[in-house]
Write a structure and sequence with these properties.
Strand content: 35-45%
Distance between the termini: 32 Å
Order of helices and strands: EEEEEEEEEEEEEEEHEEEEEEHEEH
Shape: globular
Number of domains: 1
Helix content: under 10%
Radius of gyration: 20 Å
Number of strands: 23
CATH architecture: Distorted Sandwich
Largest sheet: 10 strands, antiparallel
Strand order of the largest sheet: 1-9-10-11-12-23-19-18-14-16
């Protein structure tokens, strides 16, 4: 195995894209949005990702084989902010790490914690070769430190390969303190809503296996029809297997997927099938991610299907998750690592993936 590292600096990013690497079907270029946010475009022979190296290492956009994977929103470009809702248009953000989810009435934390818009300390490009061939990665690092409080370092990364329409998202967090710290992490992947799409999952659509979230977060303004919809979904969520009625997802619907079966390789797989037979896919270890959340929203402001977001907890906020025993503890000096593979599947690959899910 061989690899090389290119260290990046904010001063290298300009409004005009600057190619910094190209070869073996892989390429990287640096640029700055008109909003002032720096970005790295990682490309291969099938498509590209745009990643924000200094803004929580969000993946802002993803496109492979000409298919846009990301949610739609009014945000045409990322904005420099510490508040997630002021730049909510990305394909993926890292949710957590000390706190996660929608804050409840007893919580004081920000929506989905401190990591989504974290100002990263450093970023670098890596390129190398392993047993699977060539790869290109963007790495980042941020140190979190509060006087008399928690102290950790987080290292997110995203990796692509020359011919692959799926990519690897990773997060590593190390507790730099002596004592234990809370850990709550979710890989918040905001895939595009697919009108007429079909959800394929390694569990059933009974109310026990696809359980609707009954708690209503503060960002949702419910009416009587929405409350009735939640009650109906609590009895029978099976109608959500098909995304053929966008109006039922306004306001949002959130589900907890349970009883997930893993394949022979130890991974859990999900897909959102498109009408043409191709699909979006995601896979991960249920040992690392014991919870999976589904978030679907379709209105005039956003169209998104986070069909399988792996997590260490659910999304009711810190106090509620602590009461449920879902807040992990990371010992002093200990490191936790997370890895998710996701992306686009053409019709052939989607058929093969569906077979794997059915056989799990």
């Amino acid at each position: 195995m061989t690899s090389w590292t290119i260290h990046l600096r904010p001063s290298q990013f300009t409004r005009d894209p600057i190619p910094v690497l190209e070869g073996d079907g892989l390429r990287a270029e640096l640029f700055t949005y008109d909003t002032g946010v720096q970005a790295v475009r990682l490309g291969n022979r099938r498509g590209e990702l745009v990643v924000l190296p200094y803004l929580g290492q969000m993946i802002w956009s993803a496109c492979f084989d000409g298919v846009n994977l990301a949610m739609r929103s009014p945000f045409q470009a990322p904005r420099q902010t510490a508040e997630l809702l002021r730049t909510y248009g990305c394909f993926l953000y890292h949710s957590g790490l000390l706190r996660n989810g929608n804050p409840g009435p007893r919580d004081s934390h920000a929506l989905h914690g401190e990591m989504p818009c974290a100002a990263m300390d450093s970023a670098s490009l890596g390129i190398g070769e392993d047993e699977r061939g060539a790869w290109l990665a963007l790495h980042g690092q941020v140190e979190y430190l509060v006087g008399f409080g928690d102290h950790y370092v987080a290292r997110p990364s995203v990796l692509i390969r020359p011919e692959c329409t799926q990519f690897e998202v990773r997060m590593e967090v190390r507790n730099l303190g002596r004592g234990p710290m809370d850990l709550m992490y979710m890989c918040h992947a905001n895939f595009a809503f697919v009108d007429g799409g079909r959800l394929v999952q390694p569990t059933g659509f009974s109310p026990r296996e696809t359980a609707v979230r009954s708690a209503i977060p503060a960002i949702v303004k419910p009416d009587e029809a929405y409350v009735r919809r939640l009650a109906d979904m609590a009895v029978d969520p099976s109608s959500t297997e098909w995304l053929n009625e966008p109006g039922r997802f306004d306001p949002e619907l959130v589900f907890y997927l349970r009883g997930l079966r893993q394949g022979g390789d130890g991974l859990v797989r999900h897909m959102l099938m498109r009408p043409a037979g191709d699909a979006f896919g995601i896979s991960y270890s249920s040992q690392v991610f014991p919870h999976t959340i589904r978030w679907i929203l379709h209105n005039d402001r956003a169209q998104v299907c986070g069909f399988a977001m792996p997590a260490t907890c659910e999304v009711e906020g810190f106090e509620a998750e602590r009461q449920k025993g879902h807040v992990h503890s990371l010992a002093g000096g200990e490191t936790a690592s997370f890895a998710v593979t996701m992306g686009y599947l053409d019709a052939t690959a989607a058929a093969e993936e569906e077979a794997r899910i059915r056989q799990a």
